[in-house]
Amino acid sequence: MADGPDHLALHAPGLTLRIPEPGDATALYRLASDPEVTEWFSWGPYQETAEARAYLDRLPDQRERGTQLDLLQVHPTMGPVGITGLSEFSYRDRRAMVGTWFGRNAWGIGANQEGKALMAYLAFELLGLVRLGAYANTENVRSQKALEKVGFQREGILRGWHRHGDRQLDVAVYGMLRPDWQRGPLADIPVRVEGDVPQSFTTLLAAASR
Ligand SMILES: CC(C)(COP(=O)(O)OP(=O)(O)OC[C@H]1O[C@@H](n2cnc3c(N)ncnc32)[C@H](O)[C@@H]1OP(=O)(O)O)[C@@H](O)C(=O)NCCC(=O)NCCS
Fold first, then answer.
1. What is the mean pLDDT of residues 199-210?
2. Which residues, 6 or more positions from 61, have their beta carbon under 8 angstroms from its beta carbon?
3. Which of 3, 21, 94, 189 is the most exposed place for a label (fewest CB within 10 A)?
4. Which CATH superfamily includes the segment(s) 8-129+189-208?
5. Any residues with CB less than 8 A from the CB of 167 and at least 6 apart, and which?
6. Centre of ligand 1 from the C-alpha of residue 50, in Å
7. How do the domains of the chain map onto residue ranges?
């Protein structure tokens, strides 16, 4: 990969994922200042643009360390609609977790399926992972249905897994293995890639397989 800023964009017919930029702060603030969007998260709703800016400022270092790869979700007519990202990498085991949020206007329009198709392509095809996991709060029915619809399997409940305010919440854990992806609905969605996976991720994967 060339030196310089990370450049990666993944395109499906109705959604693009790209590396977020500082100029995305206003759009992210607008989307995540809605309490309905962040109801199940340990953060938010955003009270000011500076919180979105601080989030964006942390991303380059997380990519550099290979700990988190967050991408902005951009709809062809609506513009930025949310974030999706890979985290909790185990390079030795070739797995990571995917997490996603959309602004309220982008729920139920099919963008989640395309975003998950792009993330699965990134995970399985570009990074060579063998397992993609996801968490959902046990009361977040919409998120659980959405994961099952795109081919994730519900694997069980992790008790007291997620700290939310002063409460320790249970989460449902989901998984998709490479053959699940190959046989499932996500692999049918066409993907076009521009740029490269940030080099730290490929370096860490190569080092773990030696
Ligand atoms: C979770 C999220 C990414 C899913 O994307 P989405 O576009 O809303 O999901 P979809 O519309 O494709 O799928 C949701 C499904 O749940 C169903 N659903 C929603 N609420 C439901 C309920 N209370 N009971 C049963 N089904 C429900 C919907 O009908 C839909 O199924 P259908 O398409 O068969 O009708 C999105 O809603 C979001 O960003 N939510 C806020 C952040 C969040 O919770 N992220 C997940 C953290 S784990």
1. 95
2. none
3. 3
4. Gcn5-related N-acetyltransferase (GNAT) (3.40.630.30)
5. none
6. 28
7. 8-129+189-208
